[in-house]
Amino acid sequence: MGTTEDSAAATPATTDWSEVQASPDFAELRRRLRGFVFPMAGLFLAWYLLYVLLADYAHDFMSTKLFGNITVGLVFGLLQFVSTFVITGLYVRFANRVVDPAADKIRHEIEGDGQ
Asked: By C-alpha distance, which of 26, 35, 29, 39 is closest to 99?
């Protein structure tokens, strides 16, 4: 167990958060996170908008039967769920490989190597 002095060195009250935010490591973390999140969100929103527009303006196409009672619209709708799970999996992998190590490095710098 650490002493009171050890834990006092890493308290939020003694950390200069504006300095942390201005650090090159934090800027790189933010750049990498935005580099993944914004394009992925844009891609998903474009895919969703395509689905909505097709459902609204391409009734004949979306009601085309593929087999049995399964239509193109139903398949596209189910693919919305699939794409959500795929994006979630990609983000988890990205966070484990890129975000978490960078965040751990920043946290260790703030808290000190003894933590």
From this structure: 29
DSSP 8-state assignment for residue 14: G
Residue extents of the structural domains in the chain? 13-111
73 neighbors 53 (Cβ within 8 angstroms): no
Phi, psi (rounded to 5 degrees) for 94: -60, -45
Q: Which amino acid is at 14?
A: T
Rounded to 5 degrees, what angle do the CA atoms 25, 42, 38 make?
10
pLDDT tens-place string over residues 69-108: 999 999 999 999 999 999 999 999 999 999 899 888 888 8
Q: At what angle do helices 100-111 and 24-57 cross, to 10 degrees?
A: 150
